Amino acid sequence: MDKDLLIQNVIHFCTLKKEYPTKACEAAGVGKSFVSDVRRGQVPSVEKVQMLADYLGVTTSQLLGEETKKEPTYMRMDHPLKEENNWDISNELIMPGEAFYTVPKFEVTYDHGYYGQTVTNLYLKHVSLILGEEPRLYDSKLIRNKVDLAGLTADRTNTYNVWTTQTELWKKSLESAEMGEDTQKQLKAFQEGESTENAGYTNNTNTPIVLEQVRTGATEHEGTIYGGEYSSTPMIVGYTTHNSNCTIQFYEPYYTISYKELSEEEQEGMPDRYYVQREKQELILKTPVRAGCHLTGWSGMAFVDEKVEEGRTIFSFDWEHNMIHANLGDETVTPRYDSGKTITFNANGGSIEGKESVIYELHMDSENFFDIADHIPQQEGYQFAGWCLKPDDLDGSLLKHTENYDWVPKYRDDIQVYAKWKEKPKETETEKETKTEEETKTEKETENREQIPDVNSKDGQKLSGISIKKLTAGKKKFTVKWKKAKKSESVSGYQIQYSTDKKFKKNVKTKKCGKKKNSLTVSKLKAKKKYYVRMRKFRNVKKDGKKSRIYGSFSKVKKVKVR
């Protein structure tokens, strides 16, 4: 097993699926550290490779690189030079295995002869395609390969005779021609002969190419037919023209992407290459989050379209229609930062997302509110009691209200919060199935706090409860349905929580959707796993010019086992 090739293929297929490798591996059930484990030398089991391949929608052979190392697959097409494209395909990528060839064009024109007769000119244009004795071959874009002229295989011929080409116009010219017995013999003699020339090639170089220029060769005189009173007047003249002396640019199948000023952890899951292909492609770079910094873009990329979003940057490019503007080659990219507000979660003896600390960027102008209360660390033997601003004064700096950004210090870009813990009480066998009095009291206080009246509503009514109407299992997914709230309730949306813990003390995930929705499908779950689901309403409010959010009570918890 080629572990480097396996890692490259995992990253590649995740990029095509527009997912980060860590998240894809976790959703596939092989563990989010799968790529890191392989990189450290661990050999994955056949079962895990199969699970990951199934999730990515490929075969295990494709994932392991046993079928082919040519990536990605593309729709095969041929490239004719013809009148419709003015015999110019300089903007078309000719991929390995594809053919390019000429399509002859027959034309009839008329001239006035020296003796006042009408002279019919027969032209059979673009009869052949010849690379030429010294074709212009450019290798400036090649890094790992060399120009392979032998790989341009001549495999298409054109057998022709300008005199036997049948068109209605040509037939009328023959009928009107004043040809005697001698000229008829000439025509018959011309029609008996044929010529064969090469008309096209197949790209077997294993590299993409572009046929940048094809120059038309000299016009060849194929003979003259005489007629008239003395059978000596030129009546019909035949010509052929040929294509030759090609100019070809060679490209690599792919070019590499390396990263400057990024740690090994920050580079995990980043694409390591981009492909030269005719289909539009997107490369997704996850945002390396740094304390007190905001990513504004990347330096060094040759892509046309760069879109920076929350958590990622999308580079997109249509190579085929922009070859003339593209500076293709191996790229080294560097992130660009301005100052920005970030929050560092310090688990303070526990772990959050499997780490001692994690950093998130606060997009305070975004509609997607980042509630730090939704991020709960874990520590065996302890209960999470909230986030605090000071590690040496946990009680005094405990953040009790995180439903908006009012708590965010205005003078600090790198905000540190620290987990507060309280030791779990020792439970009796009876208490294991019931909540402690303290837990019940805490939940009741939370519920009362969430039931603050909406100051913007006319009647100041609280949000009512909600129930899950239907919970349906699918393959690595479930769908939850509910009855939409009445318009009079001024609901802004719905919050859905799911967890593998029926008490929602750990592994809690949260989804939000708008007020017009009455269902939500949660996918990329672990197969054969049981999930607990609950939901509630929420309303966005504004008081004294500040945005806030209030919630209704949670529905009864329902469980579902995904397939």
Features:
alpha+beta, four-stranded mixed sheet, 30 strands, 15% helix, 9 helices, Immunoglobulin-like, five-stranded antiparallel sheet
Overall average residue pLDDT: 83
Total number of helices: 9
Computed structural class: alpha+beta
Percent helix: 10-25%
Per the principal axes of the C-alpha atoms, what is the gross shape? elongated
Question: What is the first-to-last residue Cα distance?
Answer: 30 Å
- Give the strand tally: 30
- Low-confidence segments, ≥5 residues, pLDDT <50? 434-460
**Subunit arrangement of the protein:** single chain
Strand content: 35-45%
Taking all Cα atoms into account, the compactness measure Rg is 36 Å
User: Sheet bearing the most strands, described?
Assistant: 5 strands, antiparallel
Please describe what this structure looks like:
- The protein is of the alpha+beta class.
- Among the domains are: 1-69, 434 Repressor (Amino-terminal Domain) (Orthogonal Bundle); 79-251, no CATH class; 454-563, Immunoglobulin-like (Sandwich), CATH 2.60.40.
- Helices cover 15% and strands 36% of the residues.
- It contains 9 helices and 30 strands.
- It has helices at residues 3-16, 21-28, 34-39, 46-56, 60-64, 168-176, 181-192, 264-267, 437-450, and strands at 79-81, 99-102, 105-112, 118-125, 136-141, 152-160, 195-203, 209-216, 220-227, 233-240, 243-251, 254-259, 273-275, 281-286, 293-299, 305-309, 312-317, 331-339, 342-346, 357-361, 382-388, 414-423, 468-474, 477-482, 493-499, 509-514, 519-522, 530-543, 546-551, 558-561.
- A hairpin with a 2-residue loop joins β23 (468-474) and β24 (477-482).
- The longest helix has 14 residues, at 3-16.
- The two termini are 30 Å apart.
